[in-house]
Amino acid sequence: MLTIAVSKGRIYEDALPLLAEAGITPIDDPLTCRKLILRTTRDDVQLVIIRATDVPTFVEYGAADMGIAGKDILLEHGAESLYEPLDLNIACCRLMTAAHKDAPPIAGRVRVATKYVKITQRYFAGLGIQAEIIKLYGSMELAPLVGLSDCIVDLVDTGNTLKANDLEPRDLIMNISSRLVVNKAAMKMKHQAIQTLLDQFEKTLAKRG
Ligand SMILES: Nc1ncnc2c1ncn2[C@@H]1O[C@H](COP(=O)(O)OP(=O)(O)OP(=O)(O)O)[C@@H](O)[C@H]1O
Ligand SMILES: O=P(O)(O)OC[C@H]1O[C@H](OP(=O)(O)OP(=O)(O)O)[C@H](O)[C@@H]1O
Questions:
Q1: Which residue among 62, 112, 128, 193 has the highest number of C-beta atoms inside a 10 angstrom radius?
Q2: Which ligand 1 atom sits nearest the alpha carbon of residue 71?
Q3: Domains plus CATH for the chain?
Q4: Mean pLDDT throughout 165-189?
Q5: pLDDT tens per residue, range 59-76
Q6: Where is each ATP phosphoribosyltransferase catalytic domain found (predicted)?
Q7: Which pLDDT value is given to residue 33?
Q8: Residue nearest to atom 1 of ligand 1 (CA)
């Protein structure tokens, strides 16, 4: 049996067509069913749909053989112990700094609100900017509006959330997409099954161009 951990929400939605091409369609719908392990149309594959931040942990410990998670989450987690064989090119967005449209350029000493503490620390240290980082778990855009921080580090896609809150994107930290990660022991022990699945995903991605 292969267990694949998938981030719930937009990654799960975007991953469904890719999984379907490999013959994997969940039998149970996670939106209506309270079951945490989902059976699929393939007897040898089951899915666990979990919080994005938990995916690397499940795969690292071998609780899941493979996982699908955003590069943002993988970098923040520090998932060096995982194989990352495929960029799935789904849930694409950008990790950026952003500030109020009338705020001065980010320089000197700044307060930054983010849920990406490690990435942010590394980024500002690289620029030689002294950053005080305030960890938040969501709605980062609110922080500069209420004086909690000078700027934020968050994901930007359409830019609508920033715009709606009088913020503007400033610097690109990195482009983000979802990656397929594999537990190293599983890669050896279940090599045949995993490699076949990787080949199937790769074929679909190549077709998509
Ligand atoms: N606006 C976006 N456009 C495209 N991809 C995004 C966007 N926001 C987030 N993502 C990607 O989807 C992943 C999951 O984001 P999502 O917003 O679904 O979960 P979340 O609400 O941040 O997670 P949590 O369950 O921890 O609250 C992110 O890690 C990122 O890789
Ligand atoms: O540029 P946009 O297209 O507006 O997308 C950016 C927004 O998307 C993500 O939030 P999400 O929708 O996941 O909400 P949450 O982080 O509060 O769960 C991200 O944290 C931004 O707030």
A1: 112
A2: 31
A3: 2-91+177-208 (3.40.190.10), 93-174 (3.40.190.10)
A4: 98
A5: 999 999 999 999 999 999
A6: 51-202
A7: 86
A8: 157
